[in-house]
Design brief:
Elements lengths: L7 E5 L4 H12 L3 E5 L5 H8 L3 E3 L17 E5 L8 H8 L3 E4 H9 L3 E6 L4 H14 L4 E9 L4 E5 L4 E6 L13 E4 L7 H4 L2 H12 L7 E5 L7 E5 L5 E9 L2 E7 L4 E7 L4 H15 L5 H9 L9 E5 L4 E5 L4 H14 L5 E5 L4 H6 L1 H8 L4 E4 L15 H7 L5 E3 L5 H8 L3 E5 L8 H8 L4
Parallel strand pairs: 1-2, 1-4, 2-3, 4-5, 6-9, 6-10, 7-9, 10-11, 11-12, 12-13, 17-21, 18-19, 18-21, 19-20
Antiparallel strand pairs: 7-8, 13-14, 14-15, 16-17
Helix pairs in contact: 5-8, 5-9, 8-9, 10-12
């Protein structure tokens, strides 16, 4: 089924960040769009406000009849949906075209010049920076983002169709559905071992992804990764390199070396060395779209960020509240580095919600080492997402491994009273589960008290 044959698109799991971007796209190109999700969220409410019908009960009878014509309806589902989901089973049993989100993304982007951002960390921020750079330089492009860009207040952006910007997600080997013209790999840390079984299999999958570059395509690789490509890094021999880095009034200032020139006095406002690297590779990729380096330098300085990626919710003299999506030890380390560099000698309290029983089991020691660096740790129960509990794998078990006397296992409803009791200089909430839904309540409680 080609795009021109599709009149109706039904999403199973429409509230996911990647799924909702596709839903926005199909609505934008004037298809009929509807979907199911198990939970109502601000994101699904926004889809409804756009005229997209969403229901929250797994019930075939709740689906409008126009989506029950197999010859004109595309069904898009997320791998997080269980096989026994009745709506999924209905469409499978009745001959519908049923595709994963990644397959649909591949179909949409195959006739464009495709930029694909891969890596176990940094995909959303890097692709959002790239979209911002292309937008600021007047480039024709469409972007599908894995987070809500603070520059566009959306996870979908249509500014033309010459180029496309997508995240190449390694989960479930989804990125093997893409055939990019330009790609980058930001990181290859062990993750999703419930899918891959071993880090060696994950590495093999990244190599397979690189092999899917179109003929004449270009690969950007963070220096030190076991892949061949144009390298980028900080204070090293990379093809694209940040040097002479300093901080002035909370802003990074540096020189940016490219294969052709050195640009001096470049400014970037998002804290953390990881974000500097994300900005650097986005800059390098935007060069491939023909953007002028000096215009990209101007655009880098104005990048606002992505929701839940080192997002300052409160930034007062006596109290700072930061929210981040960090759900892997490497990401927690990156958050700690950014806070320590931008706000040295401050008392930092971390609230962390582990994501997935399998990930908690696979990286328990690493999580403990990452979390114990903070002055205090408030640990929430594990967010299961698509998983069933594993025997013995609990937040209490993880808490026992953390070598820090100021640690506590709490319920989400206790966060505010615990923060008040500990009175930190900086509060940081981290996790990929539903902890983000607590952020507005926390912000409201503390923003007028400081």
């Amino acid at each position: 089924m080609g795009l021109k044959d599709i009149h109706n698109v039904y999403f199973i799991g429409i509230g996911g960040i990647g799924m909702s971007a596709l839903a926005r796209y199909f609505k934008f190109i004037e298809k009929n769009v509807a979907g199911y999700d198990k939970t109502e969220t601000p994101l699904t409410q926004e889809l409804v406000s756009m005229g997209i019908a969403v229901h929250y009960k797994d019930d075939v009878s709740a689906i409008n009849d126009i989506y029950k014509h197999s010859e004109s309806t595309l069904i898009v589902y997320t791998p997080a949906v269980p096989d026994d989901h009745s709506e999924y089973q209905f469409f499978m049993a009745n001959g519908f075209e049923v595709k994963k989100r990644s397959e649909v993304l591949g179909i949409i982007t195959k006739d464009t010049f495709c930029f694909a951002v891969a890596g176990t960390h940094g995909k959303t921020t890097t692709s959002s920076i790239l979209a911002h750079l292309l937008n600021e330089t007047g480039t024709s492009f469409t972007a599908f983002l894995g987070g809500i860009s603070e520059d566009f207040n959306s996870n979908f952006l249509f500014k033309g169709s010459a180029y496309s910007v997508v995240e190449a997600d390694e989960f479930d080997r989804s990125f093997l559905r893409l055939y990019p013209d330009v790609a980058c790999v930001t990181s290859m840390d062990a993750d999703h071992l419930d899918i891959y079984g071993s880090n060696e299999e994950l590495t093999k999958s990244f190599n397979d992804f690189v092999g899917q570059l179109k003929p004449g395509g270009k690969l950007f690789v963070r220096n030190g990764l076991p892949l061949k490509g144009t390298t980028y890094g900080i204070d090293d021999d990379s093809d694209y390199c940040i040097r002479n880095l300093r901080i002035e009034h909370g802003t990074y200032i540096f020189d940016l070396g490219t294969p052709e020139t050195v640009l001096t006095g470049v400014k970037f406002n998002k804290p953390g060395r990881h974000n500097l690297l994300n900005g650097l590779v986005a800059f390098a990729m935007a060069i491939e779209a023909g953007s002028q380096p000096y215009r990209l330098v101007e655009a880098l300085e104005t990048f606002k960020g992505v929701q839940r990626r080192f997002s300052y919710k409160i930034r007062a003299d006596k109290f700072i509240f930061i929210d981040d999506y960090a759900h892997h030890p490497t990401e927690i380390n990156a958050v700690f580095q950014a806070i320590s560099e931008m706000h040295p000698n401050k008392k930092v309290l971390a609230v962390f919600q582990p994501h997935l029983f399998s990930r908690t089991k696979d990286f328990a020691k690493e999580f403990a080492k990452s979390l114990e660096k903070f002055d205090g740790i408030l640990l929430l129960e594990i967010y299961p997402a698509r998983e069933k509990p594993l025997p013995g794998i609990t937040s209490s078990w993880l808490l026992d491994m953390i070598e820090n006397e100021n640690k506590k296992l709490i319920e989400k409803g206790m966060i505010i009273q615990e923060v008040k009791a500990q009175s930190p200089d900086i509060l940081v909430t981290m996790g990929a589960g539903d902890i983000g839904l607590e952020v507005p309540r926390i912000k409201k409680e503390f923003e007028y008290a400081n």
